[in-house]
Design goal:
single chain, about 650 residues, alpha+beta, 5-stranded antiparallel β-sheet
C-alpha cells in the first residue's frame, strides 16, 4: 500500500491524528487536524501545534508527552484545542508507540477525539447540582442567582445573562443579578408592561418568551430600551419569564449577545433548565423568609428567645443554666441544676444515648453536638439541639460552654413536609376536579331532577280522588332508584378525591374504567370528543389500589382530550381499549387523534415538572408512572402511525407472581 493510500486512510479517521519521532518532533498531521486548527501541516510540524493548545493546558500536555516518551507507555490526557475560528474545545489526546521487532521505539502515533459536548454536559450537571446544594443550604438568593448566571455564561459561551425578579406586587423589578451585565444597564425599578421598558418587561407582562434577534433593527422599545442596550454593546436579547409552581410570573431570565442572533434548540433547552432552577431558588428564599418571620412572631409572642445557654464543668459536674433553658425543661429557677435532674426529663428512649455522649465528652474533651428529646408528665415531647464547645475554665479545668435550642417546631415542620410529599398523588387527583365540574354537575343533576319529578308525581297521585296508590308506589320506587343513582355518583367522587391511605384489593380494570368514563363523559362531550371503548371480555383481575388506578385512567383521558382541543380538521376521536398482555397481565390504552408527540421528547413526558401545556404543572404523568410502577407495572407513550398518540400501561394479573 502506497503512502498516498495510507494518508487517505488516515485522513478518513473520525478524529485528529498525528505522528512524531521518538524525541517528540512532529512530522505528520492528518487533514482533519489541519482543517480543525486552520494550520498547514508544515506550519504545525514546525512548532505551530503549540499554538493550538490552550495556554492553561500546555504545561500539563508537555509534561505528559515527556513522561510518555520516558516510560514508552501509551496514555491519554485531556486538553483544550483551539479551532480555526478561535474557539477552544475539549479533546482527549491518546498516544501509542510503534516499536521495532527488538522493542526499540521508532515513532509515536496519536489521536485527538472531541469530548467537548460531554465535558459541557458534565459541567452543566455539576453546576446545577452545586446550585441546588446552594439553594438547599440556605445560601443568599443573590449569590445563587449570580452563580446561576455565571454558570450559564460558561456553558453557552459568548453571551451575557441576567435574572430580574419582581416585587411582591408584580409590577416592578426589584432584584437584578448578572455578573457580566453592567450595573448601569440592570437598574431595578423598571415597570412591567408593553411600553418602552424592553423585552424583560414584555415577557413578564405577557408570560411568554420574547426574542429580539437584532436590537439595531428592533421596532419595539425604540425610545428608551434599544438605545440603552446598544450603548452597552448588546445587540440581541432573549427574555424568558420565570414562573412559580402556581403559574405566577416572578421574574425573567434574559440572555444578551454582542452580535445579532437567535436562540438554537440547545440554548432553549438550557434556558428552560436555568429558569426552572431560578424559580426554585426564588421560591425557596421566599419560603425561608416567610418561615423566619413566622418563627420570629412566634418567639416574640411566647418567649423572648428560643435558645438558652449552659455551662458544664466536667471535673465537678457543676452545671449552670440560663433562664431560657429552665423554661425549655419546665423547671423553676430555684431548683439546683444537676446532671441527674437533666436526665430526669430526658426521653426514656434517649437516656442511654445522652449518657454515652456525655461520657465521650469527658474522655475526648472535644466539641459536640447532638439532638435528643424531653418527655414531660403529660406525655408531651420536645426536641432539643445541643451544641457544646470545650474550653478551659478559669481554674484550668475542662468546661463546656454551649447552647440548647428547642427545635420542636422545626422537627414538626419536617414531618409536615414529609406528609405533604406523600400526598402529592392526592393533589394531582384534586387538581382534576375543576376539569370535571360539568361532568359532575350533569351526573348529579340527572338523578336529582328525576327525584323531584317523581316526588311531584307521587304527590299528585296521592292527592287524586280516589288516590292512585299503585301509581304512587311506582313513582316512590323510581324516586328511590334515582336517589341511589345520585348516591352512587357521590360515592365514586368521594372515593376518587378522598385523602385516604392506599389500599390493595382485587380490581376489575374494565369496571374501574367505566366508572371514570361515567364521571368524565359530559366533559368530553362538551369538548367535542367522541369516546369509543373496546374493553376485553376475558380480562383478569389485577391487584392494586382502585382509586390510584382510576386516577391514572382519568389523567390519560383528560390529557388525550386536551391534545385534541385545537383540532378542527378531523373528528376528535378517543379510543379506550383493554386487552390481555401475554399470559399473566393486562393492558389499557388511550388513543387520541390530537397533535401527537415528538418522538425525541417521549422520555421527557414522564419527568417531574416537564409539561407541554401552558397551564400544566408537569406532575400528572410523573405521578401516574410512579403509581403504575408501584403496582409492578409499566406506563409508556408512542406516536400513532397517523395523527395523535397512544398512552398505555400494563399491570400483572392478580396472583401472577410478577416481581
Amino acid at each position: 500500500m502506497g503512502s498516498t493510500e495510507v494518508s487517505r486512510i488516515v485522513d478518513a479517521i473520525p478524529g485528529l491524528a498525528w505522528s512524531c519521532d521518538p524525541d517528540g518532533n512532529f512530522d505528520y498531521f492528518n487533514q482533519r487536524w489541519c482543517e480543525y486548527s486552520g494550520m498547514s501541516m508544515a506550519d504545525a510540524c514546525e512548532g505551530g501545534w503549540r499554538d493550538a493548545i490552550h495556554p492553561d493546558d500546555f504545561e500539563q500536555v508537555f509534561q505528559w508527552g515527556r513522561e510518555r516518551r520516558r516510560t514508552g507507555q501509551a496514555g491519554e490526557v485531556e486538553a483544550r484545542l483551539r479551532r480555526s475560528d478561535g474557539e477552544f474545545r475539549w479533546f482527549v489526546i491518546s498516544t501509542e508507540p510503534q516499536r521495532e521487532d527488538a522493542g526499540t521505539r521508532v515513532r509515536w502515533f496519536g489521536q485527538q477525539t472531541d469530548i467537548d459536548d460531554r465535558k459541557r454536559a458534565e459541567a452543566i450537571l455539576a453546576g446545577q447540582k452545586r446550585l441546588l446544594e446552594m439553594v438547599a443550604g440556605g445560601c443568599s438568593l443573590t449569590v445563587v442567582l449570580e452563580e446561576l448566571c455565571a454558570l450559564f455564561e460558561d456553558t453557552a459561551r459568548g453571551c451575557h445573562c441576567s435574572v430580574s425578579l419582581l416585587d411582591p406586587t408584580g409590577t416592578r423589578f426589584q432584584v437584578c443579578a448578572g455578573v457580566s451585565i453592567p450595573a448601569s444597564f440592570r437598574v431595578p425599578g423598571r415597570l412591567v408592561g408593553t411600553g418602552e421598558q424592553g423585552p424583560c418587561a414584555l415577557a413578564a407582562y405577557t408570560k411568554e418568551q420574547v426574542i429580539s434577534t437584532d436590537v439595531a433593527t428592533e421596532t419595539r422599545w425604540q425610545i428608551a430600551w434599544c438605545p440603552l442596550a446598544l450603548a452597552h454593546g448588546l445587540r440581541a436579547c432573549w427574555s424568558t419569564p420565570i414562573s412559580s409552581r402556581g403559574g405566577r410570573v416572578i421574574g425573567t431570565f434574559a440572555v444578551y449577545l454582542d452580535e445579532p442572533s437567535a436562540p438554537t434548540p440547545f440554548h432553549q433547552d438550557l434556558i428552560a433548565q436555568f429558569t426552572h432552577i431560578a424559580g426554585i431558588a426564588n421560591e425557596r428564599a421566599q419560603n425561608e423568609a416567610a418561615l423566619r418571620r413566622s418563627e420570629a412572631f412566634l418567639a416574640e409572642a411566647q418567649y423572648l428567645s428560643s435558645t438558652g445557654s449552659f455551662s458544664w464543668k466536667v471535673t465537678t459536674d457543676e452545671v449552670s443554666w440560663s433562664e431560657e433553658v429552665y423554661r425549655i425543661y419546665g423547671f423553676r429557677e430555684i431548683v439546683p441544676v444537676t446532671m441527674k435532674l437533666a436526665l430526669s426529663r430526658t426521653h426514656p428512649e434517649d437516656i442511654a444515648q445522652v449518657s454515652e455522649l456525655m461520657d465521650r465528652a469527658r474522655r475526648e474533651r472535644r466539641d459536640f453536638q447532638f439532638e435528643y428529646r424531653l418527655q414531660f408528665r403529660d406525655a408531651s415531647v420536645k426536641y432539643l439541639h445541643v451544641v457544646g464547645r470545650a474550653t478551659p475554665s478559669e481554674e484550668g479545668q475542662l468546661e463546656y460552654i454551649g447552647a440548647i435550642q428547642d427545635v420542636t417546631e422545626r422537627r414538626r415542620s419536617e414531618e409536615a413536609l414529609g406528609k405533604v410529599r406523600s400526598e402529592l398523588a392526592h393533589v394531582t387527583r384534586v387538581t382534576s376536579l375543576g376539569a370535571l365540574t360539568a361532568s359532575i354537575a350533569h351526573e348529579v343533576n340527572q338523578p336529582l331532577a328525576g327525584i323531584i319529578t317523581n316526588a311531584n308525581t307521587c304527590l299528585r297521585m296521592l292527592a287524586a280522588e280516589p288516590p292512585n296508590i299503585e301509581g304512587a308506589f311506582e313513582t316512590a320506587r323510581r324516586t328511590i332508584r334515582d336517589g341511589n343513582r345520585a348516591s352512587d355518583v357521590i360515592i365514586r367522587l368521594r372515593q376518587l378525591f378522598a385523602k385516604t391511605d392506599g389500599s390493595t384489593d382485587s380490581v376489575d380494570l374494565n369496571e374501574a374504567t367505566r366508572e371514570v368514563i361515567a364521571l368524565s363523559q359530559s366533559e368530553l362531550q362538551r369538548s367535542g370528543v367522541i369516546l369509543r371503548t373496546d374493553l376485553a371480555d376475558d380480562l383478569p383481575l389485577v391487584t392494586g389500589d382502585r382509586v390510584q388506578l382510576q386516577q391514572v385512567i382519568l389523567n390519560l383521558l383528560l390529557n388525550a382530550s386536551d391534545a385534541m382541543i385545537e383540532i378542527d380538521c378531523r373528528p376528535r376521536q378517543l379510543l379506550v381499549t383493554t386487552r390481555r398482555n401475554g399470559d399473566d397481565g393486562v393492558r389499557l390504552s388511550v388513543r387520541d387523534l390530537g397533535v401527537g408527540i415528538n418522538p425525541e421528547e417521549v422520555n421527557k413526558l414522564f419527568d417531574a415538572f416537564y409539561t407541554t401545556k401552558s397551564t400544566g404543572m408537569g406532575i400528572g404523568l410523573s405521578v401516574s408512572r410512579s403509581i403504575i410502577e408501584s403496582h409492578r407495572g409499566h406506563l409508556w407513550a408512542a406516536a400513532n402511525d397517523g395523527p395523535g398518540a397512544t398512552f398505555s400501561f400494563s399491570l400483572p394479573a392478580a396472583g401472577s407472581g410478577t416481581r
